[in-house]
Write a structure and sequence with these properties.
- With 315 residues, the chain is α+β, with helices and mostly antiparallel strands.
- Helix 5 (124-133) crosses helix 6 (138-148) and helix 11 (280-297) packs antiparallel against helix 12 (299-310).
- The chain has helices at 19-26, 30-36, 65-77, 97-101, 124-133, 138-148, 161-182, 205-213, 249-265, 267-273, 280-297, 299-310; strands at 44-50, 57-63, 109-114, 186-190, 193-198, 226-228, 235-236, 239-241, 245-246.
- The strands form three sheets. A four-stranded antiparallel beta sheet has the order 4-5-3-6. It has a three-stranded antiparallel beta sheet with strand order 7-8-9.
- The radius of gyration is 22 Å and the shape is globular.
- The chain starts with 18 loop residues before the first helix and ends in a 5-residue tail after the last helix.
Length: 315
């Protein structure tokens, strides 16, 4: 990998010789900036959001608005200059759950594996080493790592975290991709979800992945390893991958049913019936979010849902 030298390199990455250079390039007040370099800074809050499985939650560590803007600057001006492995599809410009699912259409077997505690297992030291490999000196790499970590790990909620995780896992992406390609298998990864598809050789892959990760900071969550066989319902990152990609029928049915109830009984009555505690605007926004997901996979269906949602009165 090409190192940064004097001036800007061919990818126009910013050059920093000291921490002050970072502060000046971002244009943030020095007092605020150096507060964020304190390893014990309290510029985060923790929240829990429900997972699809009832009763399970994902804990997010959310940075303050000022720190989030700073991390986004690091993401856009530094991290995006370094490409992730082609198998990675999560939180990468022009990639999505759709690009993650397409390689697995019509495959005989699909293997799903999950990286256990993906973000928490990425330490300050690993992040600092990543910036060192980008060509920054020790002092600058140390400061950039402080800006992007919290309590010695990658905070799940910071805008810089997913891409840093992608970069740090890239060597393993390459190993898995190469091994799969040699055995006529397809491999993609969306954040901590690994998906491999193809023929019966796929049965040997779980042990191979565990072996290459054995001496690393990453590990597989064995309880979430799943092999989907011929005839089983095949979904990858929530998308059906039979002869073509499509939205799960029950997902589309449930959303249409919600819109039907809202049109029949009114929005306020519907929210009261389901005992929804948030604002009606937040609820409708969540429905638009589901419509966007549908449109990403099936444009025609998505446009129909958007049209129906646009007719709902909030009065």
């Amino acid at each position: 990998m090409k190192l940064i030298d004097n001036g800007l390199d061919d990818l126009s990455r910013p050059v920093f010789l000291c921490t002050k250079d970072i502060q000046q390039a971002i244009g943030i007040d020095p007092k605020i900036f150096y507060t964020f370099l304190n390893p014990k800074n309290i510029s985060y809050i923790k929240i829990k959001i429900p997972k699809r499985k009832k009763g399970e939650y994902r804990e997010l560590t959310i940075p303050s608005p000022a720190l989030k803007n700073l991390q986004r600057w690091v993401l856009e001006h530094i991290l995006y200059s370094f490409p992730c492995h082609g198998s990675a599809n999560g939180f990468i410009p022009n990639k999505s759950i759709v690009t993650n699912a397409i390689p697995h259409i019509s495959k005989e077997y699909i293997l799903k594996m999950d990286l256990k505690d993906f973000f928490p297992n990425i330490t300050f030291s690993m992040v600092k080493n990543q910036f060192l490999t980008m060509g920054y000196n020790d002092h600058v790499s140390h400061s950039l790592a402080l800006l992007c970590t919290y309590n010695d790990s990658l905070p799940q909620g910071a805008p810089s975290s997913p891409y840093l995780a992608n970069l740090l896992f890239s060597p393993f992406d390459e190993l898995i991709y190469t091994h799969c390609s040699k055995n006529n298998l397809s491999y993609t990864r969306y954040a901590d979800d690994l998906t491999i598809s193809g023929g019966k050789y796929i049965l040997k892959i779980p042990q191979y992945v565990k072996d290459i990760l054995r001496d690393s900071d990453f590990q597989i969550n064995n309880s979430k390893t799943l092999i989907i066989k011929k005839g089983d319902k095949k979904q990858v990152t929530g998308i059906v991958v039979n002869e073509k990609i499509s939205i799960p029928k029950n997902y589309l049915r449930e959303l249409r049913q919600i819109i039907y109830y809202i049109n029949k009984y009114g929005l306020d009555s519907h929210l009261k019936k389901i005992d929804y505690k948030g604002s009606k605007y937040k609820y409708i926004n969540s429905l638009y979010g589901k419509a966007s997901y549908i449109k990403m996979v099936d444009s025609e269906q998505g446009i129909k849902i958007f049209t129906e949602l646009n007719k709902i009165s909030l009065d």
